[in-house]
Specification:
InterPro entries: Aspartic_peptidase_A1, PEPTIDASE_A1, Peptidase_aspartic_dom_sf, TAXi_C, TAXi_N. Belongs to the peptidase A1 family. It is found in: Secreted, Extracellular space. Keywords: Secreted, Signal. This is Peptidase A1 domain-containing protein. It is a single chain. This protein is of the alpha+beta class. It has two domains: 182 residues, Cathepsin D, subunit A, domain 1 (Beta Barrel); 157 residues, Cathepsin D, subunit A, domain 1 (Beta Barrel). It is 18% helix and 36% strand. It has seven helices and 29 strands. Strands 1, 2, 3, 4, 5, 6, 9, 10, 11, 12, 13, 14, 28 and 29 form a 14-stranded mixed β-sheet that branches. Strand 7 and strand 8 form a beta hairpin. Helix 4 packs across helix 7. The radius of gyration is 21 Å and the shape is elongated.
């Protein structure tokens, strides 16, 4: 987690603490959370400041999580958090999507079900409220740190941390639920109802609200948009077809290929019937480009000699031929040794619930804007094609803005 610490030092300098104030009546452009990739688990870890005294906690980012949860008994222990009553409005907000969980008993605490998106397990946890601090920018006065009172999250047991990156004490849920991080900050600080992620193999960022100030209007205005579908708390897009080096794959019998976006799955997975067609077509395209197959390395299904700079282009064609998410190079291949690289698309099995799950590797160095209000996903395709990355574009544009 050294990269996260270095990144935090930069932001501590950049967003120097001028003053701390209540958010009531305050409007800001965005709230910012640095994100680092854990090398061992390939999970993306964000850091949040909360409690009294103010301290930090590392949380695994979960696009499909309904709320933020953490182990409140280890790591930073806050003396200011308060339990939420089961008969309160906030408890009702937290349980809005939990059918059959609306009853309450006086003088009892509100219990919710924290979900570990890595292991797929659910546990019982108490809903609490506390103060959090976020780096935020006021259009009229940059560099202020904003405190958000009465922020809702869940306390989970230590055993529920199983499978998470070392040092992570919970998960940061970014789903559409009313108490997810983006939803709470939107209502508390006055953000637009949207958030952006720009993941990286080193340092990336999560923004709630508008990201134009950070990434610059040139990148922000270059985004293509496709309809965003929300099911429970997961985000999906519809893929009309898949192309490899411009050749359309014969997956039309599957109709629209619903694709889930997941920050806890390291590589894109496909249901077996789709993967079989995809992998065969990829091998054919690679052979035409004189790529040499080599022995596979788990968990990958296709591996090649790393000699030669070019690999096939993969296009996810969305609502029209004019709107496509292009995946190539570093977003499609994983270097496993000095001599070989493997295709970062895996067979998800026969029972995978969604035909496609777009994983972290394919989202890296792509600016993704989740506009919840208009149900649209904005995407840049690889920033590498624009000769920048999530890390460099963030630092460059921020330095231009503030120095």
């Amino acid at each position: 987690m050294a990269s996260l610490s270095q990144f935090l030092l930069f932001f501590s300098f950049l967003f120097c603490l001028k003053n701390t104030f209540p958010v009531l009546g305050f409007q800001s452009n965005f709230a910012l959370f640095p994100v680092a990739k854990d090398a061992a688990t390939l999970q993306y870890v964000a850091r949040i400041s909360h409690g009294a005294p103010l301290g930090s906690t590392d949380l695994v980012v979960d696009l499909g999580g309904s709320f933020l949860w953490m182990d409140c008994n280890s790591g930073h222990v806050s003396s200011s958090y308060r339990l939420v009553s089961s008969c309160s409005v906030n408890c009702s907000r937290a349980k809005f999507h939990d059918l059959g969980s609306t009853s309450c008993l006086l003088n009892t605490n509100c219990y919710v079900s924290p979900y570990n998106g890595v292991t797929g397990s659910t546990s019982m946890g108490e809903l609490v409220e506390d103060v959090i601090a976020v780096d935020s920018v006021d259009p009229s006065d940059v560099g202020q740190s904003t405190t958000v009172d009465h922020f809702l999250f869940a306390c989970a047991s230590t055993f529920h941390l199983q499978g998470l990156a070392s040092g992570a004490k919970g998960m940061m849920g970014l789903g559409k639920a009313s108490i997810s991080l983006p939803s709470q900050l939107s209502s508390s600080i006055g953000h637009p109802q949207k958030f952006s992620v720009c993941l990286s193999s080193s340092t990336g960022v999560l923004l709630t609200g508008s990201g134009d100030t950070v990434f610059g209007t040139k990148i922000a205005r270059s985004l293509a948009y496709t309809p965003l579908i929300t099911k429970q708390n997961d985000y999906f897009i519809n893929v009309q077809s898949i192309k490899i080096n411009g050749r359309r794959l014969a997956v039309h019998e599957h109709g629209k290929l619903e694709a889930k976006l997941s920050s806890v799955v390291p590589y894109t997975t496909m249901v077996s019937s789709v993967y079989a067609i995809f992998s065969k077509a990829y091998v054919e395209a690679a052979t035409k480009m004189n790529m040499t197959r080599v022995e596979t390395v788990a968990p990958f299904g296709l591996c090649f000699s790393s000699k030669g700079p070019l690999v096939p282009e993969i296009d996810l064609v969305l609502q029209s031929e004019m709107v496509k998410w292009r995946i190539q190079g570093r977003n499609s291949m994983v270097k496993v040794s000095e001599e070989s690289m493997c295709l970062g698309f895996l067979d998800g099995g026969l029972e995978q619930s969604s035909p496609i799950v777009i994983g972290g590797l394919q989202m890296e160095d792509n600016l993704l804007e989740f506009d919840i209000g208009s149900s649209m996903l904005g995407f840049s395709s690889s920033l590498l094609l624009k000769e920048t990355t999530c890390s460099s574009s963030l630092l460059d544009s921020t330095l231009k803005q503030f120095f």
